[in-house]
Design goal:
This protein has about 80 residues and is of the alpha+beta class. The chain has one helix at about 55-65, and strands spanning about 10, 20, 30, 50. The protein has one domain (about 20-80). A hairpin with a 6-residue loop joins β1 and β2 (about 20). The radius of gyration is 13 Å and the shape is globular.
Length: about 80
């Protein structure tokens, strides 16, 4: 049995739906709060704050990123 496991409920950055996640492993996209963009799309990495994203949105966003020559966001690992 794993001790110290924490589960959270919060909104997905992309769709806004509430979902449950482990804060240590949820995909979390770094987003610049001033312009709402990740650093690889024009956001400032120094100001970026990690925002969680659900599996459904992750599956929709990754093909778009690939088509634009950007690396995919990976489930189960904190990003940024």
């Amino acid at each position: 049995m794993n001790e110290g496991t924490l589960l959270a409920i919060g909104p997905c950055f992309a769709c806004g739906e509430l979902f449950g996640f482990d804060p240590d492993t949820v995909p979390a996209i770094p987003i610049d709060p001033d312009n709402g963009l990740p650093p690889d799309r024009g956001g400032d990495r120094a100001r970026a704050v990690n925002r969680p994203i659900c599996d459904k949105c992750l599956a929709e966003i990754n093909p778009i990123r690939a088509a634009n020559g950007l690396p995919p966001f990976i489930h189960g690992r904190r990003l940024g």
